Input
Amino acid sequence: MKILLLGGTSEARALAPQLLSEGHQVISSLAGRVDSPLLPDGEVRIGGFGGVSGLASYLRQNQIELVIDATHPFAEQISANAVLACEQTKTQLVRRQRPSWIQRPDSTNWTWVSDHDEAFRACLASGAKSILLTVGRQPLPHYLDLDAEKVIARVADLGRVSGLPTHWKVIEDRGPFTIEKELKLFSDKQIKLLVTKDSGSAKTAAKLDAAAKLGVQVIMVARSILPDLARPN
Ligand code: NAP
Output
């Protein structure tokens, strides 16, 4: 089959060689957000398609038979676009999404919020003086007016984000994040509040283990509900 694999995640990178070894023709697609992305095996295209109509044209022109949406759970726009473009072109679509962290036993202790504005207000209400933000770089503008004495923003790659408050500390780190490393960061920086989003990745879950162990409060931004996939005829 000729497959378009919407990626930008470690799961998509792992899936590409698997599909290739099964004899499929795979084109992995990345948004092009980071300067030096980790590239999957096989053919790769980089950059947006130009909305739903652009994606639909791409599917037609390249005679794609199957789209696999293996994007990040918070990459909501491209997932929604994929549903509409596949409906328009009658292309088969499957979604591969990581399970939510809501299944973790400690998730009942977290403050769940529906978006970053609500997370920001929850930060203010907490009164925490030392906050670790691991929400990714794009949502950082929602948190610029935090009144905490210490704010650490940890991102994989800050890219072209600028204008962050001068007293913030930015840590660029793609991991791996071990429980030992997270405990050390939380202790060294006396973190009292962790703000993160429900990415569900096993690779970034050690911070939640560390927070549980140290009694650090957690504000968790929940996932949006993605549009349903069309039922096969
Ligand atoms: P998004 O908000 O859902 O998408 C915004 C636009 O970026 C889309 O409309 C599309 O542009 C383009 N785009 C997104 N993913 C693409 C892909 N795989 N291939 C081609 N174009 C893509 O996406 P996002 O949250 O900015 O995430 C961008 C990429 O980073 C995704 O591939 C995602 O898997 C990865 N990622 C995201 C996060 C996160 O927290 N959001 C974390 C880790 C990795 P057009 O409308 O022009 O087609």
Observations:
- The chain has six helices and eleven strands.
- The two ends are 19 Å apart (CA to CA).
- The mean pLDDT is 96.
